[in-house]
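Pinned message: reference record for Glutamyl-Q tRNA(Asp) ligase
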Amino acid sequence: MAFIPPDSRKPVFRFAPSPNGRLHLGHALSALTNEALARKAGGRLLLRIEDIDLARSRPEFVAGIIEDLGWLGIVFEPGIRRQSRHFEDYGAALRRLQARGLVYPCFCSRQEIRAEVAAREAGTGRPWPLDPDGAPLYPGRCKALAPEEAARRIAAGAPHVLRLDMAKALAATGNALGYVVFEADGSRREVEVRPERWGDVVLARKDVPTSYHLAVVVDDALQGVSHVVRGRDLEAATDIHVVLQRLLGLPTPLYHFHRLLLDEDGRKLAKSRQSESLAELRAEGVQPADIRRQLGFS
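Predicted structure (tokens):
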């Protein structure tokens, strides 16, 4: 597994959708923003399919992504990286973290976590802290589990995830952590990260031998991505990515966070809420030029 250092002479951008539904206008905005910024920088544009969720990813959605992007007229470099075909890459990175004692197995179910959080709230009379996505921070029950007991449970086939020990991770990084945000006008600003607000995040799931956070960091390094362009909803998650980059000795790309498209209720467009897809718009007679004009790329 050879990581490619970003080449400042030829910036590398990527658009990385998940094939768990058809693309909607929010995806079009992200793809077109990547296209515009890559063209302005004289850079390369890659397409990645983030299909680690094998239960929800479907071949017809992959085909739909390619069809929709082609209809929009976005041209990517040949070769599409499919995450589901590279689990060994993520496993190698995970083993490096495990060898340093930065990862531990967690056998708690979501129901058990909710119950423990409720008990602690009742005991202290104070609300339990939440991560930036609104989920309760993991209380840490399995962090104190004896290694022998953890190994026994794993050998017995007990379902478990692998969590990053955030306190140990931050101690291992040493210096202050941050990244640089770039804007369309060429300006840049430095951002200091606060990974502790995420707690002990999951790096490998019960049903998948990796997580979004680990896979995206490894992929960006393997593909030499120098500029990451994605929605503002993923801005907070960049804290986790910067920590993993430092721990794994990987470069930190420049980041740009574009605006989000909202529905009538002020919520972000999402496949899970059946936001109108590009395929449906196309069937209604909408043209690519209409989409580009609507999103400000005319």
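Pinned by admin. Summary line: The chain has a mean pLDDT of 94.
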